[in-house]
Amino acid sequence: MTPVEIPVEKWSGAVREVTLGSSYGGGTRGSTVSVGGETALPFLGFEGAMPHRPAIAVEVQDMHPADWSAELQAAWGDAMDDAATWAQKAVEAGADLIALKLRSCHPDQGDGSCEDAVRTVERVLAAVPVPLIVYGPGSADKDNEVLVAVAEKTKGEQLALGLCEDKNYRTIVAAALGNGHAVIAQTPIDVNLAKQLNILISDMGLPLERVLMDPNTGALGYGLEYTYSVMERLRLAALMGDSMTQQPMICTAGEEAWRQKEGRAEGDVPEAWGALAERGVAWEISTATTLLESGADILVLRHPASVSAMRDALDDLTKGA
Amino acid sequence: MALSGLQIYKLLPQTNCKECGFPTCLAFAMKLAQKGTELDKCPYVSDDARTALDAASAPPIKLATIGAGDRAFGVGNETVMYRHEKTFVHQPGLVVRVKSDAADLADVAARVAGYSVERVGMTLTLDGLAVEDAGGRAAAYAAAVAAARAAAPGLPLVLMSADAAAIDAALAGGAAAEKPLIHAATAANWQAMAEVAKKHACPLVIKVADGDLDGLLELSGQVRGAGVEDLVLDPGATTLAGELAAATQLRRLALKKGARELGYPLVAVAAAPTWQAELVRATQAVGKYAGVIILDHFEPAMLYSLLTLRQNIYTDPQKPIQMEPKLYEIGSPTADSPVLITTNFSLTYFSVAGEVEGAGIPTWLLVADSDGQSVLTGWAAGKFDAEKIAKTVKGSGIENMVGHKKLVIPGHVAGLSGEVEEELPEWKIMVGPRDAVDIPNYIKNVWGA
């Protein structure tokens, strides 16, 4: 019997490598995280390389997020009262990176000052050796103020700063450019919009080796299939050599999954949904796995049990690669 | 492999008789290649040509039907690697496995048969029960299968045993009429298994270890040679990476290389020691090409996740799910709750509903019929204009539900507010945010202010 001839796709392009964290030139990180570099579709070791295994970031906020699911409150407990403590717990739980959200700077959440934000970032940097993603509070003007202050005071740490959107990217990109940081470019579930924002950012002179793209995650049951297909198309385009789609992708699987009713509702839901203790984690795991399979290079997660499950999954997915 | 128009033309009489309704044989051939007409329209086609065309038009991944009656399900017939190319058509069957000597076998069977959950207006259910031979005598296995059938009448079954005599006994005991899937013929037992599958006319899994596709090809030839045509493949990989590689390779071989010997649906045994690990494996299997997924945990949270994922992945990407246009109650809205209007594109609806629900704001959500388009595309296409908004408000009865007359329209159609005010003079039209994520803040800080 003649052996089966395994069909292998020949790709001409590759995903760019992006490295977060630095231990020199102002950087103080004990470890760095590189992502990207793929020359084939995710985890197809028979076809090409995935030089860096996708990384897991854990989301930490600079104020106790009282609106988070009870399940998450229970998992992190008092650590949620202090970003540095929370970050340490997250690293113990298996985080490769910390995704710190400076929520308390939001005008509706206390309107914290830039000085406070910088102090929080510095405390987290001191508490953990891993690289940091720093998200502004999610209000355009305040994002700009806060992220510029943080970027300047952490020069050389090679943070990832987010979010850059089509209407609000210049200030953040400039701050990253001048201080050795990377940025996260977020666009709403669309291949062309993602390309366009990468072009705009690149036109400002920021090397594409410092740009992650966030195709805007939809949770399981809440648009996941749109994200899935847009990510597959972006990754296929990248492998076919379309330069402006070749950025590693970051997906906020945790935030999206835990925002939904399935991640929050206790009681008063059909029995077939299962208990919240299992359901929230299930929602996060399934969302995260689907995104990994379609090309996520960094997963931002919320629950320690999901972190553990996704670490095991990545061990198994990268076996023999 | 599908033939091109020219390849089909060479098989036709080439007389241009026009009796098929096309001006030339070539025009007919071109239409055939696009699957726009039927070969039977040609009265003069030769038997040889018919055989060649039939073979070429057979689906690259053969359909397998598992079970009989209302709950039977088909898997296979897939035509693409990625769902953005064309819809994935036959969603994978989710099957829960139970050991034949399990004390709670009947209980599990009944729970699997009875499990259902509502989502986007659809009822989602599990597809089958796998009864795994715990070893021992064939009669004991047959009795277990009979007990499962009694506990879950009509639920499709997967019979799992390496012992052809056990499978034969179960099928002869009455299960054969329900056309269960037999798992599995291997290099060690394929003659006996093929004989049983043929005798009872049931679909048969052929199984190898560690993604050994050469072995699978050989086994496929042997089993088909023994007269069994309805096959399902189990590549037997043990890691996620191995499963993904085997599933991808088999799909490509069938679709791109026309490998008929391997053009069958796949079964993924996703079972793992913990439900979390099992969920990861099954999640991969839903997206990456499984036709049947076998699970060991009856964990509702996991099952609900997988049913939702399957619905997501198998949705037609060209034809988004639409919501029924009507008034939706999010939470338990009262006469003082805000009234929002949006379009009936399901993702738009779920974005808005998810935000207000997540923020715990009881809301009246009016959904206008925009033919399933989002706010911006619906507005651009004239499917979501002032008239449509007014019509939706008037037809909903909302004015009797609330004590106020404040209507929030999406920020993306801020320009419509004047026109809407003219159409609905008694309402105060408020312009909400562009993005759903900003709605909770808007309601807290602007709407109530």
Description of the structure:
The complex is a heterodimer of chains A (321) and B (449). Helix content of chain A is 40%, strand content 15%. Chain A has 11 helices and 10 strands. In chain A, strand 5, helix 4 (140-153) and strand 6 form a beta-alpha-beta unit. The longest helix of chain A has 18 residues, at 276-293. Chain A starts with 16 loop residues before the first strand and ends with a helix. The model of chain A has no long low-confidence stretch (mean pLDDT 95). Chain B has an 8-stranded parallel beta sheet, with helices on one face. Chain B has a 5-stranded mixed beta sheet with strand order 13-15-14-16-17, with helices on both faces. The radius of gyration of chain B is 28 Å and the shape is globular. Chain B has 3 domains: 5-57, Electron transport complex subunit B, putative Fe-S cluster (3-methyladenine DNA Glycosylase II, Chain A, domain 3, Orthogonal Bundle), CATH 1.10.15.40; 64-313, Dihydropteroate synthase-like (TIM Barrel, Alpha-Beta Barrel), CATH 3.20.20; 327-447, Rossmann fold, CATH 3.40.50. In chain B, a hairpin with a 2-residue loop joins strand 4 and strand 5 (122-125). Chains A and B meet through helix 7, helix 9, helix 10 and helix 11 of A and strand 4, helix 8, helix 9, helix 10 and helix 11 of B.
